[in-house]
Amino acid sequence: MLKDRFKYDMAVLTARAFAETVPELFQKDPQMPIFRAEDIYERIEKPKNPEMGNFALPLFEFARLIKGNPNELNQRLTDFQNRMALADPDLAHLTFSAAGGFNNCRIKTAALAEAVLREVLQKKNDYGASDMGMGKNIVIDYSSPNIAKPFGVAHLRTTAIGHSLYRIFKKLGYNCIGINHLGDWGTQFGKLIVAYRLWGSEEELRGDPIGKLLELYVRYHKEEESDSSLADAARAAFKALEDGHPEETELWEKFRDYSITAFEKTYRRLGIKFDHYSGESFYNDKIEPALSRLEKAGLLEMSQGALTVNLDKYHLPPCLLRRSDGATLYATRDVAAVLYRWETFHFEKALYVVASAQRDHFQQVFKVIELLDEAEKHLPEEKVALHLVHVDFGWIKFQDDIMSTRKGNIVFLEDVLDRAAELAREKIVEKNPELPDIDKISRMIGHGAVIFGDLASRRQKDINFVWSEVLNFEGGTGPYLQYTHARLSSLIRKYNRDIGPDVDFKLLDNPEESRVLDMLYHFPQIVYDSAREYEPFIICSYLLELGSAFNRVYQRKDADGRSVKIISDDSALSSARMALVASVRTVINEGLHLLGIESPEEM
Ligand code: ARG
After folding, report:
1. pLDDT of residue 208
2. DSSP states of 263-290 as a string?
3. Does residue 405 carry a pLDDT above 50?
4. Which atom of ligand 1 has the smallest separation from the CA of 361?
5. For burial by CB atoms within 10 Å, which of 78, 474, 505, 532 has the most?
6. Exposure of 149 by Cβ count < 10 A (0-12 exposed, 13-18 middle, 19+ buried)?
């Protein structure tokens, strides 16, 4: 639970107002929710329309409790609330108003400014951090590309969402464990071994592992159509690999090592590090013990030589764990992985950031674990299934003719990032040809455009990726926020004096500034909400709103029709405004960081 001081003040004052307005009820039962600040606190919302104030308490439920009319109750309450606030210096920063059944509360701008700006200027990028996670473990399974298949743009979403969730949970005091569950096992490795022996070479592989492996894979499938002996050879090679034969193992290791090296190049560009590269092969020796646990629990069924868990009762297809030829499957390795991770990390949550297309798979795996929990009679807190979350997401469609023709119809993530940097560079050169370090900044902006473009919609929605949209510097994009950050940074350089926190907060008194302050004030709540819903999107839309709220502050005209200057001859006013500038900059910087995006000082 997040403690919000002003919200708490409102709750306390409202509880007292209730006690005054219906004393008979208070006498009878002081534990009623209307008299308890904690209960009221839980029900306070943000008003839909920010003009209504900072907080809104819906009174309908309370009115029912005391059998009253919400409007009338509201009038009585606000009367009391305002009188009490006036009389108590500790609460004098609150004003109340009644709007139908909503009891609205506004924090006076100077008080809000003082509280928020002091905190942001003092904590800097730690603003919004908390220790609510108490160091508990969150396992995040994300990115997880398949070796020998392209690290294509299809894996962008899991990579971007997973990385962002990692940073968000870390900020909330959790210990995050990032796992790359590489697709590094399965029958396709038999095919690759055969193809490599026939058509591959070490040299070529070293030069371009991902491209080469893909080429071999594609060629294998083409030739297999006319040569059925290849399939037998591939089966035999995979069997040899499973049995641990040294030659096949060595080849497999080579494919794996080269691929990881290539993946890491992409990850480095995006500032991503994994705590573990434990792919599917990691579970090879953990499968038998897992199966025997399921066996002991009476969950396994043998049908035509295959082992399954019947899930008919739950309207799910049976979970196939071992084929009749003895081969284990993707699901088998995921079941073993859950058990291993639970034993190793005792996680608060295990997040699987994987496309919605795998919904059935995860429902099956989670159900198998749930049945095991029940059969083994675990205590409630030891029920593993309760801690598993499939963080699913929709498709990304990528329309780019130039890129798709380069390499058939597969769009590689690496190429997307290159192309993004290229396009960003063109725009930056147009705007600011003198900019030093233009390559570095172009990459920053290009990556920012791609990542933000991915995260800026609710994750379950499908995305249509269009360059001109994600690279628009004017609004709605990562580059727009990066540009805002660069502008604020340059203002701070120009001001070139220490900023706050001892400024005259009363000078920030217009509605536009008050709106920005309110938004800054809510940043910790935004971080919390994005973690609770596993939605980096919440941070994206918050930042866009903050950016435009801030732009409105200085687009407004003063009394004689001139636009407002941030830095002027009035030094008290300048320093108050710069405190706001610096705070907005910090929050944009930190917000982008939580999304996995870097902020340029100049652009
Ligand atoms: N390698 C899989 C794919 O690309 C994703 C793996 C996700 N993680 C998991 N534990 N199943 O589709």
Report:
1. 85
2. HHHHHHHTT---SB---GGGGGGGHHHH
3. no
4. 11
5. 505
6. middle
Measure the CA–CA gap between 99 and 45, rounded to whole angstroms.
Answer: 14
Residue ID of nearest Cα to ligand 1 atom 11: 334
In the predicted structure, residue 482 carries a pLDDT above the cut 50: yes
* Single-letter amino acid code for the residue at 441: I
Is the pLDDT score of 303 beyond 90? no
Exposure b/e, 412-431, CB count within 10 A at least 16 = b: bbbbbbebbbebbbebbeee
C-alpha separations of 475 from 147, 353, 416 in Å: 38, 28, 21
Q: Comparing 402 with 135, which gets the higher pLDDT?
A: 135
Ligand 1 atom closest to the Cα of residue 182 is: 1
Q: What is the CA radius of gyration of the chain?
A: 29
In terms of Cα–Cα distance, which of 66, 89, 88, 91 is closest to 76? 66
Q: Which of 332, 358, 363, 396 to mutate to test the pocket of ligand 1 (most atoms within 8 A of CB)?
A: 358
Ligand 1 geometric centre to CA of 269 (Å): 22
Calculate the average pLDDT of the chain: 93
188 contacts 218 by C-beta, under 8 angstroms? no
Hey, whose CA ends up nearest to atom 6 of ligand 1? 144
Tell me the pLDDT tens digit for each residue of 3-28. 788 999 999 999 999 999 888 889 98
Work out the average pLDDT over 184-205.
Answer: 93
With tokens 């071999």, the residue in question is: 216
The more confident residue out of 277 and 410 is 277
Token pair for 591 = 């917000």
Name the residue of 158, 181, 263, 347 whose CB sits within 8 Å of the most ligand 1 atoms, as the mutation to test its pocket. Answer: 181
pTM for this model (two decimals): 0.93
- Residue 402: predicted pLDDT: 58
Determine the atom of ligand 1 nearest the C-alpha atom of 362. Answer: 11
Helix (H, G, I), strand (E, B) or coil at 329: coil
* Residue 328 phi, psi dihedral angles, 5° rounding: -95, 170
Q: How far is residue 170's CA from residue 174's CA, in Å, rounded to a whole number?
A: 5
CA of 343 to the centre of ligand 1 (A): 21
* Pocket, ligand 1, Cβ cutoff 6 A: 141, 144, 146, 181, 183, 334, 337, 352, 354
Output the 3-class SS for 122-154: HHHHHCCCCCCCCCCEEEEECCCCECCCCCEHH
Question: Residues 296-313: what's their mean pLDDT?
Answer: 95
Q: What integer is the mean pLDDT of 475-494?
A: 96
Beta bridge partners, 303, equal 306
> Quick one: tokens of 325?
């030829």
Residue nearest to atom 4 of ligand 1 (CA): 145
- Quote the ligand 1 centre to 330 CA distance (angstroms): 8
Give the phi and the psi of residue 381 in degrees, each rounded to 5: -75, -10
